[in-house]
Amino acid sequence: MATAQSCSAPLGHHMVFTIPRTASHLLLKLLNLPQQHSVYRHSNNQDGYMFLPAAALRFRQSLPGKAIQEWSEEEKTALKDAMQGSFDDWLGLIEEAEKQGKSTFVKEHLNWMASPAAEARLYGHQKSNSSTTTQFQVHWKTQQISDSRKQDNITYLPDAFLLQEVKPTFLIRHPALTFPSCLRTAMDNEGASSVIDGEKIQQWECTYFWSLSLYTFYIESAAEFDRRSFVDGVKYPIVLDAQDLGDEALVRKYAKAVGLDEEKVRFTWKAAEETELARLGKVEKRMKSTILASSGIEEGKLNAALDIEIQRLTKRSKA
């Protein structure tokens, strides 16, 4: 394992950028954040999903896939307010952590943070003009961000915030595992008819457009942010493949790189008890079903054999 860099590398504020079904629950379970004393955690003990209110509003109003020009003024105002509220929640977490001399470590689905202008590009809508784009920009440090933004920043957050405050990790997983898993959970949670009617939402969730774009933003802005980690040779942005989470040495190295205590990393735990399960809603239990029932890494889930032809035939037989 590489040796640690000097402590001049700041602890910082970490974000694991994901899309649904990339084993992010497992990653955080392995890192054992409740026992990472350098990390300040949200009062709700949820290590992320601060942008869920904005995403939930998009779902309720069926905005994914809908051209901005078709949105009502009420929808635009409600989404902008929800975006600002989600961002403020993250800023509040960072502020409290810094008061205590600690870092933060959270995860988020990138599609929940995506700007409507970026969504327009994803769906092939006519490009939004600058006035439309700025409608959804959020405030940071009491000032609204500049109209000038790098296109590959597909979030509605300021370029400067992402470069100055965020230590980025991108968690990916093979699309042939990720996308069918996302479809199965959607079918279980919402029913087949809702999933079919919500094709645009599936496109919104089942794509690496968000991850690849934001990764490109960071790489092309490499000279503008501190790329140092606590392990020589490891620089931000860091990319983790879910398939490798069963590699104990690699997971410990990652923990060390981002300033966590590698000795606190765990690979076994107790399966969730009935009292814990009773506190969870139906959707959350379904989304976390594997990790809740497990007592360690299930290699069969991480490294499932990929045979595209078999998956195609299976899909056809169930049609």
Automatic annotation (TrEMBL):
Superkingdom of origin organism: Eukaryota
InterPro entries, per database record: P-loop_NTPase, Pyrrolopyrazine_biosynth_F
Protein name: P-loop containing nucleoside triphosphate hydrolase protein
